[in-house]
Fold this sequence. Notes:
alpha/beta; nine-stranded mixed β-sheet; 19 helices; 49% helix
Amino acid sequence: xxxxxxxxxxxxxxxxxxxxxxxxxxxxxxxxxxxxxxxxxxxxxxxxxxxxxxxxxxxxxxxxxxxxxxxxxxxxxxxxxxxxxxxxxxxxxxxxxxxxxxxxxxxxxxxxxxxxxxxxxxxxxxxxxxxxxxxxxxxxxxxxxxxxxxxxxxxxxxxxxxxxxxxxxxxxxxxxxxxxxxxxxxxxxxxxxxxxxxxxxxxxxxxxxxxxxxxxxxxxxxxxxxxxxxxxxxxxxxxxxxxxxxxxxxxxxxxxxxxxxxxxxxxxxxxxxxxxxxxxxxxxxxxxxxxxxxxxxxxxxxxxxxxxxxxxxxxxxxxxxxxxxxxxxxxxxxxxxxxxxxxxxxxxxxxxxxxxxxxxxxxxxxxxxxxxxxxxxxxxxxxxxxxxxxxxxxxxxxxxxxxxxxxxxxxxxxxx
Length: 416
């Protein structure tokens, strides 16, 4: 409730009278305690509020509405909007009360107009610009704040691909995320993600590198960069792409905002791809939202020995579509869009590797290994293993840390 009140005040302070009036009406309709306060303190205003709220309509009446009181309700809505002017003191007093209730959002008055001048805009339930893709999700966001050309992206005919996953991807997860994002970029499909660390950041980065449209759905005000490590990505998206949030500017990220945010990410996407996810990954929540509103959920299978793949594999067990090769995604995009582009850039031939080097790479895709463990698992002598490890390192396929070897992301696509 607090962030909704702050949204109404932000709209009001930015001179969006119509938006503020509609949002306030929706808030009051959902909060009986607040309505009771208004009825007690502003009896002259309570009849108008009751009329507006009982209409159960956020944006007035349309021409084809069945309700015979349409004209009266539209007139009331106009009165409500007019009531936000300085000439209607009861509602101005109401706004002062709302300001107190929204005190958790300091300095919104000072921030609102400069942020609006910087390009932050808002759309709201009942507005003609409200994204139609939201109409299947629950709860509906009452307000959506955005920066960038949101409507050019969401209204384009290009196939929109959501890419989500763990914040701590393995080399395998990094590799497949890059491949999925590169395939999307190859077809100029907008990439939708949440700008979290890990898979989200990789997806946005690949989109930016290929000058492909990308949309970041945030769990905080869009004037705040979170996490801080993603400042370069945030600034690049701010300059040329799209940031959205249902939370007003100045809202700091709270833990429970993230799972709620995921329903918007699912709504913006035509299909959702989970590249790698653990058992408690938030991407599983996103996949659930996507499935509920009829979006296809694709998942990259992972090894059963990796914790980061346990959630992905569970999605497969629950009916997600397995993405077993980049060509699968390309085929789906072509089927949905009717395009046909060659994928030769993604069909790399593996370099010549000895049988032992191939075995080393395959073993390291399961887990990091020490030299002794590799000798035991591969049934080879140390004198045979060490030269092969050196060759793989020189080719940029593996690296060592703290006495253990691990594969680089470039190795995964070479051993499939």
